[in-house]
């Protein structure tokens, strides 16, 4: 278990100095000669102090925490024989010295190099006492795990204890000689300032301590630090008193970030922003970087700061921030590295090494070992300008902020003021540096294929400014960037991902919604035109694209780049989250087992009080208190209490749940403890969950990052699908199959690698050509901001003059010859006929495209020659897609038609035979099948959306939830728009902005099982019931699921909130398949009442007029809130009854009506709630085979009905019933698969979701 316990503040304490035999020799020589030269001695490890410092009966302590890791030994180097004059005095100490030949060493800590690092400049023996000095170390093992050390050097007189060798015959004239000692405190966490403060407190004791008592003093000091737990990630800091200081131990901001307990603003004091950017650029490119300073302590702090500025990119190369004087050979390593040297070695290193980036911290310069300038590519200028401007707003000097305040008379008060100031400054620095990294790598996500883990590096480089491409090319080749890519492909939701998502521009959001080919929108054209400077030279490609080359002001040859090239710099106001400081009890005076246990028990009591006070206030803070109490209970062998605390994390914050520790705790339970746990429901569930998780096969996370490669062999259909999906132009499998048919040769059907390469090349060249096209501003004014030019012909003769025919996703227009002007030919919805024709020219006839429209230009004809048939195919497909989109109120039809048209263009461009048009026609899906898909859609249908648009195949819409927006919102960061929550398969939830129906979150993962139900609460929460028996809770502000309710034993089938409850916290009821019903307090997330309903299966739950109505399959049961059964509706028995179970029901209490539907019956039954023996009436549903779901909206009942099966498809209808007249008022054709879910949006709209054959959502207007 010890391996999984978070380590305490102290991992080990090491004392380093010269051996006393050597010091005695030096002292005797000094007395004899009287020389006063400073001597350099070889340092050695004198003492290693590591936990545990108290012993306990072995039966318990061995299982709990032998923070003692398995010890190994390091043998001291054999000392040189002392001169004969000292032999006698040495011999008396031989027995004592022999016992200390082997020194116990903690696991994972290598002490071989530690003496040199504790004395990087050498161990000095001086004739005068020097001031104490501190410096900082970082140790990295072969697996990349880091430990951190803080070293205090102090000088002690040699005569203090060498005089005892004379057995009391001390000289009356003692020589003054001082030797340096180092006290190194090692921790797993970078708590540099905290450990420095602790050593400063120890220093007070050491100044008056006899040498014979030194080890005991240091041991008592180390023992106290082992009692300090490390706080979990979040906003809870710990404070402890180590006389005379109150020391605050900060926590990590989140589990992905390191703790920041060093002066993060030091680099800003040492360097100008331009030099900071130079160093960061070198680190991003993994150069060989060496920091220099005359102060050893500065080296590690500045190096650590720069590595923190790179977050979330993690340095993957050797890292030695302090090199001792005997380690300079490390600088000859051929690989990239970060190292630190004393400034006195600057000239030597510069002369003997090549291609080093030499950073002089003391004078703030950056140079190379070959020259005074750095020749590496700079960070992109747009991101650099934003960073420099942000730096000007930093308040870097504490004294300036304190000018208006009274002087502090208490040191701890002054330290607290400085801590708060530093906390705010560090927060601002973190935001500024994170923004820099986001601006540099913002568009990486646009070139990732998450399903196939592919990064399109070539396309990413082409999208960069030409002047920035060398920088990005070098960065993309580094191990650091490769690790960053793994996190992005794993969709890690860290600070980078959150900032990148929250700062996306409207242009970027629009682009990510368009599948397939990337084209610049008119909005991008306008933004680029405002920010670009007209240049005299025009690209050759641009010259071939536009008919008007004379208007230089309307054209720019600059490449269409991503939005990071123009970065606005608004005010950056992100206040830090409030921090809670929890004070630990005073350390025990004596470090015995009983006193340590008393300390832990007192700490548990204080944490219990903190838990009680935070119960209904702050769930995140409550989780941290539970975590700490669980950790301390573990240390006290109170396993059941520890498991109970950790189980409580599920209801407060699952992100800090210690999975491995809990598993070890469960495994270590004794039989009697396990029996007690089975009697406690929450622990019984936890034990079952741990057992289930342990039985699951271990699945390693896929960390592969692929680079798209063109195939080298003939492709069958499956391989072709994989290649196209990795490429990223099309995800839909059905469309890829049609493309395969278009490109494949005779039986057996395969696609040759040469043809695939031609297809890929043509597609990319078309994309690249579109990126270089700039339209005149007079043309842009006539187009919508989201429109893109997808097809542009060569200059041709038309019935309305000479020009170029252009196609966007909405219309066709003509760029006329001469002065470029805009002539709209038609919008696709206004087309009446499209066909190819021929126009006479001299003695021949030229193929042409003829379009009949209902607009101002009734007839348009263009002599497109060889391109006429291709344009005819593309325009027909776009026209058919537009008709389908308008008819079905589904904009995705138009998107799919555009993809088909572009694929046609690429097929014709790569198939250089007479069969090219025939091959391309296989992609004309909508033009061919629009009549087969003809469906009468009522005006009630307003819109359709496809929640599976990011997936290769559609998925079933299992549940829908609408959460209303807020007219006024006090939280400035909150989103006031209403939202639509969509539950797809395998625990995937998609969120839409219900005002614009645009996707906000394409994936929120809640387990891996199917979602059965969802419910919204006023506390900005969404509760989700899953088949894995867990209720997941999503915070609607952060869009993150960090709470779970695990009290159910079977799949959760229903959630309902009691809107009649007048209490401040809403009462929630949940039910599970086994008939269990739980009543929850939504604020404390505790179960107030539990009861069971005797039934075979409990499928859903409603609350009406203070009564619970339960759908039990073959019956409907009314219950009181205490679980007492009131009424029960069952199927009437009889031989003619063919109905097996109810599928859904609706209660209208004011009418005394209960409406029930069945999946295998075309009748709707009406029951009187006062007499449930027989149905009061029956309503026949036309052309319906059964009811799948029901919903009451205003005074109407909306039904999702299955249509009678047609060969190859199953149509479904939305039926509206009037409960007053008992008549069907509307029957609306809805989906091409059965309806799985219905949802009401404030009684103004009804949303219906279909099964996986279609997987779409229809939005209906309630009239």
From TrEMBL:
Q: Which UniProt keywords apply?
A: Guanine-nucleotide releasing factor
Q: What PROSITE patterns is this protein classified in?
A: DENN (PS50211)
> What's the protein here called?
DENN domain-containing protein 3-like
**Cellular component annotations (GO), alphabetically ordered:** cytoplasmic vesicle
Keyword hit for Secreted: no
GO molecular-function terms, A-Z? guanyl-nucleotide exchange factor activity
Location of the region described as Disordered in the Swiss-Prot/TrEMBL record: 59-102
* GO biological process entries: regulation of Rab protein signal transduction
Compositional bias of type Basic residues: which residue ranges?
66-81
Domain UDENN span(s) in chain numbering: 82-495
What Pfam family is a match for this entry?
DENN
* Taxonomic source organism: Gouania willdenowi (Blunt-snouted clingfish)
């Amino acid at each position: 278990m010890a391996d999984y316990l978070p380590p305490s503040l102290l991992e080990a304490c090491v004392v380093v100095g010269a051996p006393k035999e050597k010091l005695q020799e030096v002292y005797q020589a000094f007395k004899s000669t009287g020389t006063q030269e400073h001597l350099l001695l070889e340092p050695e490890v004198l003492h290693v102090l590591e936990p545990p410092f108290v012993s306990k009966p072995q039966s318990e302590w061995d299982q709990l925490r032998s923070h003692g890791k398995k010890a190994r030994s390091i043998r001291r180097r054999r000392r040189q024989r002392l001169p004969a004059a000292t032999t006698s005095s040495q011999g008396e100490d031989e027995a004592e010295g022999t016992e200390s030949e082997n020194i116990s060493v903690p696991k994972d800590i290598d002490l071989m190099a530690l003496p040199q690092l504790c004395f990087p400049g050498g161990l000095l023996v001086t004739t005068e006492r020097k001031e104490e000095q501190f410096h900082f170390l970082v140790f990295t093992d072969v697996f990349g795990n880091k430990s951190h050390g803080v070293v205090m050097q102090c000088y002690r007189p040699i005569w203090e204890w060498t005089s005892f060798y004379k057995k009391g015959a001390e000289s009356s004239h003692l020589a003054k000689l001082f030797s340096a000692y180092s006290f190194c405190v090692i921790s797993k966490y970078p708590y540099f300032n905290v450990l420095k403060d602790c050593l400063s407190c120890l220093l007070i004791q050491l100044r008056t301590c006899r040498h014979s008592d030194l080890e005991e003093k240091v041991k008592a000091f180390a023992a106290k630090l082992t009692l300090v737990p490390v706080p979990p990630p979040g906003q809870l800091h710990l404070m402890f008193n180590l006389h005379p200081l109150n020391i605050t131990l900060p926590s990590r901001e989140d589990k992905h970030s390191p703790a920041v307990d060093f002066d993060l603003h030091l680099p800003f004091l040492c360097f100008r922003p331009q030099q900071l950017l130079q160093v960061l650029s070198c680190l991003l490119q993994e150069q060989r970087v060496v920091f220099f300073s005359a102060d050893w302590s500065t080296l590690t702090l500045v190096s650590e700061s720069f590595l923190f500025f790179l977050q979330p990119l993690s340095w993957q190369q050797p890292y030695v921030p302090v090199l001792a004087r005997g380690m300079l050979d490390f600088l000859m390593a051929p690989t990239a590295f970060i190292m630190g040297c004393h400034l006195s070695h600057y000239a030597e290193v510069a002369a003997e090494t090549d291609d080093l980036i030499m950073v002089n911290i003391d004078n703030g310069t950056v140079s190379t070992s070959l020259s005074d300038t750095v020749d590496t590519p700079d960070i992109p200028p747009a991101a650099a300008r934003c960073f420099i401007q942000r730096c000007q707003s930093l308040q870097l000097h504490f004294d300036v902020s304190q000018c208006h305040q009274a002087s502090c008379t208490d040191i701890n008060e002054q330290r607290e003021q400085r801590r708060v100031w530093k906390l705010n400054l560090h927060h601002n620095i973190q935001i500024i540096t994170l923004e820099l990294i986001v601006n540099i790598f913002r568009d990486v996500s646009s070139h990732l294929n998450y399903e196939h883990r592919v990064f399109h590096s070539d396309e990413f480089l082409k999208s960069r400014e030409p002047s920035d491409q060398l920088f990005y090319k070098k960065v993309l080749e580094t191990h650091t960037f490769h690790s960053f890519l793994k996190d992005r492909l794993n969709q890690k939701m860290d600070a980078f991902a959150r900032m990148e998502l929250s700062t996306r521009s409207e242009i970027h959001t629009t682009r990510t919604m368009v599948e397939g080919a990337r084209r610049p929108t008119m909005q991008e054209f306008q933004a680029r035109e405002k920010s670009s400077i007209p240049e005299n030279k025009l690209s050759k490609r641009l010259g071939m694209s536009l008919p008007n080359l004379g208007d230089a002001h309307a054209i720019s040859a600059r490449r269409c780049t991503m939005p990071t090239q123009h970065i606005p710099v608004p005010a950056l106001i992100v206040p830090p989250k409030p921090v809670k400081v929890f004070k630990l009890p005073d350390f025990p005076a004596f470090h015995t087992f009983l006193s340590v246990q008393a300390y832990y028990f007192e700490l548990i009591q204080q944490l219990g009080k903190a838990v009680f006070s935070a119960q209904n206030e702050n769930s995140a803070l409550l989780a941290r208190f539970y975590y700490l109490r669980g950790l301390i209970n573990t240390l006290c062998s109170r396993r059941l209490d520890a498991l109970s605390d950790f189980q409580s994390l599920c209801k407060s914050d699952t992100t800090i749940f210690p999975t491995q520790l809990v598993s070890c705790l469960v495994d270590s339970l004794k039989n009697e403890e396990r029996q007690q746990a089975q009697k406690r429901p929450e622990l019984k569930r936890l034990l079952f969950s741990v057992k289930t998780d342990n039985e699951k096969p271990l699945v390693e996370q896929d960390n592969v990052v692929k680079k798209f490669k063109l195939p080298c062999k003939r492709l069958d259909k499956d391989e072709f699908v994989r290649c196209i999906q990795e490429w990223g132009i099309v995800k839909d499998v059905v469309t890829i199959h049609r493309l395969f048919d278009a490109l494949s040769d005779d039986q057996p059907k395969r696609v040759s690698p040469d043809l695939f390469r031609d297809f890929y090349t043509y597609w990319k060249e078309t994309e690249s050509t579109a990126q270089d096209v700039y339209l005149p501003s007079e043309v842009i004014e006539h187009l919508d901001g989201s429109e893109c030019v997808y097809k542009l012909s060569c200059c041709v003769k038309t019935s309305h003059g000479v020009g170029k025919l252009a196609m966007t996703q909405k219309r066709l227009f003509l760029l006329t010859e001469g002065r470029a002007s805009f002539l709209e030919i038609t919008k696709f919805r206004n087309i009446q006929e499209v066909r190819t024709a021929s126009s006479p020219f001299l003695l021949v006839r030229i193929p042409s495209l003829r379009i009949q429209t209902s607009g101002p230009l009734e007839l348009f004809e263009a002599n497109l020659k060889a391109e006429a048939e291709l344009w005819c195919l593309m325009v027909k497909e776009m026209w058919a897609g537009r008709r389908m989109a308008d008819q079905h109120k589904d904009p995705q039809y138009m998107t799919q038609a555009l993809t088909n048209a572009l694929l046609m263009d690429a097929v014709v461009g790569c198939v250089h035979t007479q069969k090219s048009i025939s091959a391309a026609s296989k992609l004309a899906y909508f033009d061919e099948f629009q009549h087969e898909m003809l469906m009468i859609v009522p005006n009630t249908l307003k819109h359709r959306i496809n929640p599976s648009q990011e997936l290769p195949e559609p998925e079933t819409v299992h549940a829908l939830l609408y959460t209303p927006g807020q007219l006024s919102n006090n939280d400035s960061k909150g989103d006031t728009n209403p939202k639509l929550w969509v539950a797809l398969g395998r625990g995937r939830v998609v969120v839409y902005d219900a005002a614009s129906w645009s996707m906000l979150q394409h994936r929120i993962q809640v387990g891996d099982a199917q979602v059965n139900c969802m419910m919204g609460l006023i506390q900005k929460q969404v509760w989700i019931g899953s088949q894995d028996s867990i209720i997941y809770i999503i915070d609607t502000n952060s869009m993150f699921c960090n709470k779970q309710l695990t009290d159910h034993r079977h799949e959760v089938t229903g959630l309902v909130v009691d809107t009649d409850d007048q209490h401040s916290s809403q009462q929630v009821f949940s039910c599970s398949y086994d008939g269990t019903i739980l009543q929850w307090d939504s604020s404390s997330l505790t179960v107030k009442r539990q009861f069971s309903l005797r039934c075979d299966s409990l499928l859903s739950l409603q609350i009406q007029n203070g009564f619970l109505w339960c759908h039990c399959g073959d019956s409907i049961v009314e219950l009181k809130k205490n679980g007492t059964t009131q009424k029960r509706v069952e199927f009437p028995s009889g031989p003619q009854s063919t109905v097996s179970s109810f599928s859904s029901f609706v209660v209208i209490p004011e009418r005394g009506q209960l409406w029930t539907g069945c999946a295998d019956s075309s009748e709707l039954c009406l029951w009187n709630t006062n007499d449930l023996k027989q149905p009061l009436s029956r309503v026949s549903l036309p052309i319906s085979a059964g009811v799948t779901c029901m919903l009451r909206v205003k005074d109407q009942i909306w039904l999702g009905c299955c249509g009678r099966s047609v060969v190859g498809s199953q149509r479904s209808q939305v039926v509206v019933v009037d409960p007053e007249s008992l008549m069907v008022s509307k029957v609306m054709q809805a989906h091409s698969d059965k309806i799985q879910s219905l949802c009401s949006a404030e009684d103004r709209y009804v949303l219906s979701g279909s099964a996986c054959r279609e997987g779409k959502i229809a939005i209906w207007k309630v009239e």
